[in-house]
Write a structure and sequence with these properties.
alpha+beta; Alpha-Beta Plaits; four-stranded antiparallel sheet
């Protein structure tokens, strides 16, 4: 096998690994989106309970207070159980993701003059407080994930960068380097 065949094989394997990782990250993002929806339902249920309590207390029906909210409390308990299950699902899935695959992805990307890097946005960066869509990043760079306060964010153009965000960048090495300088300059 000549050099170009090896490079081609390496790139094909790298693209497959990248595809697999993208699928995994998409699945993780979907799970986190589902978790957020459950959290929103819980919040709405708390508001509903508060409304029932207020109505019963202001209409001098305090004796009906407990029976009036029992259905709401039951629904809240069910939602909290769903949230706990979703958080466990996220934790289990995250634990399954194999770091050796990430290392393999990095190696494969490097064969094709690409890289995957993670940087921390400094508080002095001029990009802090800006939406990703406002930051003119090179087209050959993908912002993969942002880790903020221990939570993984799957960003979109409306995601606002904050100090201490751990940003994962994927793309052509030269363009990733340009992006790192842009995000980290002070």
């Amino acid at each position: 096998m000549n050099l170009w065949d090896k490079v081609k094989t390496g790139l094909e394997e790298g693209l497959q690994t990248l595809s697999d990782k993208t699928t995994e990250m998409s699945k993780l993002g979907k799970m986190k989106w589902e978790r957020r929806n459950i959290q929103k339902e819980i919040h709405r249920e708390f508001i509903s309970i508060g409304k029932v309590v207020h109505e019963l207390s202001t209409s001098n029906n305090e004796e009906q207070l407990v029976p009036g909210i029992s259905d709401e409390i039951e629904k809240l308990d069910e939602l909290e159980s769903r949230l706990k299950n979703k958080e466990q699902e996220i934790e289990d899935f995250t634990a399954k993701i194999d770091n050796t695959q990430v290392k393999g992805l990095k190696k494969d990307l490097e064969l094709g003059d690409g890289t995957i890097e993670q940087i921390v946005v400094t508080e002095n960066s001029p990009m802090v407080g800006k939406k990703l869509m406002e930051i003119k990043l090179p087209k050959a760079v993908l912002v993969g994930t942002i880790v903020r306060d221990g939570h993984v964010i799957i960003p979109d153009g409306k995601t606002i960068l904050k100090a201490d965000d751990k940003v994962t960048l994927l793309g052509e090495k030269e363009n990733v380097d340009i992006t790192i300088k842009k995000l980290c300059r002070e």
